[in-house]
Write a structure and sequence with these properties.
Elements (H helix, E strand, L loop, with lengths): L1 H35 L3 E7 L1 H4 L9 H13 L3 E7 L5 H12 L9 E5 L2 H6 L3 H17 L4 E4 L9 H8 L1 H9 L3 E2 L22 H20 L1
Parallel strand pairs: 1-2, 1-3, 3-4, 4-5
Helix pairs in contact: 3-9, 4-6, 6-8
Length: 225
């Protein structure tokens, strides 16, 4: 009886030791996988507003958004700068494929589509802008690439008809393709002198911080889709 009892105690201790060993190794394995996981890759595809015009490294939209998302999600995030200063929707449409090509074999985890501001500044026909945004969204949805549509608003200086035709592009197309919409990329920053550079068009570091705080939750939600 005494021998059996001792044997039983030894088995229990051995079982506990093995359990702790495998639990510890599983935790190490999981941590190693997390550490070596490929970062979330987001393409911020747009014009000077995403390019970070007039701002030093670290202060532009992609840099601030990358830091914000990494802190919020607790996991590595890379935001690729796909902004070209002065670009219109026509230019964006022509370069979308090669902008995505290097990112996860052409399939980023999310594309933030921010184009149209220069179309509106130049008075480009809203029909042209609509056709270009439509074509880009079709390409992205056909490839099953999650997309957040960043809307833009036209200046009233072009008249109410132009303004109505232009401003309807983003809500119409985001609804058509079933994509999330951030209604106005410059929300909370446009027309506020202290949040914009001397040209009155491009946000300062502080202006970008406001944009990131406002659009950030939309980006998180788009990633979760």
């Amino acid at each position: 009886m005494k021998v059996n009892r001792i044997t039983k105690i030894l088995y229990v201790k051995l079982f506990a030791a093995f359990t702790l060993f495998f639990a510890a190794n599983s935790a190490i394995f999981a941590a190693d996988r997390a550490e070596n996981a490929e970062p979330i890759a987001i393409l911020a595809f747009g014009d000077s507003l995403t390019a970070g015009y007039g701002l030093p490294a670290g202060e532009g939209f992609v840099d601030q958004l990358e830091v914000w998302l990494t802190n919020e999600l607790g996991t590595p995030v890379t935001v690729v700068n796909g902004g070209v200063s002065g670009d219109t929707s026509t230019g964006g449409r022509s370069r979308l494929d090669w902008a995505m090509a290097p990112i996860k074999s052409g399939k980023p985890d999310l594309v933030i589509l921010e184009l149209g501001a220069n179309d509106a500044l130049r008075g480009v026909s809203p029909d042209v802008t609509r056709a270009n945004i439509d074509a880009m969204l079709k390409t992205l949805t056909d490839r099953n690439i999650p997309t957040l549509v960043a809307g833009m608003l036209a200046s009233p200086s072009w008249g109410p008809d132009y303004e109505a035709a232009f401003n309807s592009i983003y809500p119409d197309l985001s609804e058509q393709y079933g994509l999330p919409l951030y209604p106005f990329f410059l929300d909370g920053v446009a027309t506020i002198p202290e949040l914009n550079q001397s040209d009155g068009l491009h946000p300062t570091k502080e202006g970008v911080a406001i944009i990131v705080e406002k659009i950030g939750p939309f980006v998180k939600q788009a990633l979760s889709r």
